[in-house]
Write a structure and sequence with these properties.
By secondary structure, the chain is an alpha+beta fold. The chain is built from five helices and eight strands; from the N terminus they run ββββββαββαααα.
């Protein structure tokens, strides 16, 4: 989790156990002990579009494949690479709306070569981590269900009936 320390307010002690909150831009006119309070604020987002972020392509001919962001072109597009030997995604510019960011990040430099990217993927174990997620399991079960034949759907229906009874 990402935490950021932010200055919240300026408290002035007026008496025994009495504190008054002043904005930092206001001047202190009374004699008192000024204490700057820092609050630990949890950032709501942890998946940022950044170099090395692993993403899932959610639309287009390469739907369902993992890729790595290796450069941000502008606010709508990013340069991604598979690496091709592992995921089957060639280096290309893709719209960010076609990407779903994952929690995984590999340590690479800007515009990393395919060789260094492949090493980073192997070092981070991205494929194994992805296979262990519920997201990947759900996608696998959906694709298995979609590829069933008529006989397979019939057998699944009978199996559901026996489980319910």
């Amino acid at each position: 989790m990402n935490y950021v320390w932010l200055p919240v307010c300026l408290l002035v002690r007026l008496g025994s156990g009495v504190w008054q909150c002043l904005r930092p831009c206001q001047l202190l006119t009374e004699c008192g002990t000024a204490v700057c309070v820092l609050a630990c604020v949890r950032q709501p987002f942890t998946r940022f579009v950044e170099i090395g972020r692993v993403a899932l392509i959610n639309y287009g001919p390469e739907e369902g494949k993992l890729c790595t962001i290796i450069d941000v072109v502008d606010q709508n597009r990013a340069l991604v690479d598979g690496p091709y030997g592992i995921t089957g995604v060639h280096r290309q510019v893709i719209n960010l709306r076609r990407l779903s960011l994952t929690d995984f990040k590999v340590k690479i430099g800007l515009n990393a070569r395919a060789k260094s990217l492949k090493k980073a993927w192997a070092a981070a174990g991205v494929q194994e981590k992805w296979a262990a997620t519920a997201w990947a399991a759900k996608r696998a079960s959906r694709s298995a269900k979609a590829s069933l034949t008529d006989l397979g759907r019939f057998k699944a229906m009978l199996a559901k009936k026996t489980v319910r009874c």
